[in-house]
Amino acid sequence: MKKFHKIEAFTGLEAAIVLIAFVVVAAVFSYVVLGAGFFTTQKAQQVVYSGVQQASSNLIVIGEVYGDAEGTISSPPRIHALVFSIGLAAGGSSIDLNKTVFTYQNRTVLRTLDFASQIGGTPPNNGNQPADYQWMIKSRQNDDGDTSLEKNEQFTLQVNLSMAIDGGIPPSEDFTLTIRPDIGAAIPIHKSAPGGITPMNLLY
Q: What is the dihedral of CA 137, 140, 144, 150, to 10 degrees?
C-alpha cells in the first residue's frame, strides 16, 4: 500500500486573515505617507504665502515729498522737516504705525526716528509739533482715529530732523528715509535737497 504524507497548508480562513493583515498594514502606511505629504504641502504653502507677503510692499508714498525749511536758523538754510502722504498698496494688509520703524540716512548719519505718540503718550493731531528726530501723523483722511493705516485711509506724515545750526539737510544733499513696517517690504525714499532751499521745497 502507498503511504500518504501529511502536508500542512493554509486553509481559506488563514489565507483571508493574512490578506486582511497585509491590507490593514498597507492602508495604515498609506495614511501615514499621505498625511505627511499633506502636512508638508500645507507648510510649503504657508512658507510661500509668508514669503510673498514679506517681499511685497503693502505701503506706498502718495504724491510728492516736500522739505520744510521755514523758520530755519542756519545759513545757508537747511531742510528740517519732511512732509508726505502714505497709503496702502492695492490688496495690502493694514499696517500699525506704532510698529513701523523710520530711519534717516545720509553720507555721515544713520539714525532711527521716534514716533511722537510714543514720547507724548497720545497720538499727535494737527498742530502738534514733534521734537527733533521724531515723526508724527500730521493729518488723516478717511481714518477711524487710530494709528493703523487701513484700506482707503491716507495719512500725511511729518518727519522732523533738527532745527539746530548743524542739523537738517543742507543744499544739494542726498538722503534716504526708510519706512520699515512690521509686515511687508521696507520703503526707501531717496531724495535730494535743492541747490537753493526755500521755506517749502519739492524734493526729487
A: -80
Rounded distance, CA 94 to CA 186, Å? 15
| Three-class DSSP category at 98 | helix
Q: What are phi and psi of 142, to 5 degrees?
A: 60, 30
Kindly give the residue spans of alpha helices, DSSP state H, lying in the chain: 12-55, 116-120
Query: Cβ(161)–Cβ(169) under 8 Å?
Result: yes
**Cα(136)–Cα(112) distance, integer angstroms:** 14
* HSE value, Cβ hemisphere, 13 Å, CA-based, for 188: 6
For strand 110-115 and strand 101-105, is the pairing parallel, antiparallel, or unpaired?
antiparallel
What gap in Å lies between CA 14 and CA 55, rounded to an integer? 61
Q: What's the rounded Cα separation, in Å, for the pair 141 and 36?
A: 49
Residue pLDDT, tens place only, 21-63? 878 887 777 777 777 766 666 655 554 444 444 445 688 999 9
Radius of gyration of the CA atoms of the chain, in A: 33
Residue carrying the nine cell digits 526716528: 113
Give Cα 60 to chain centroid, integer Å.
11
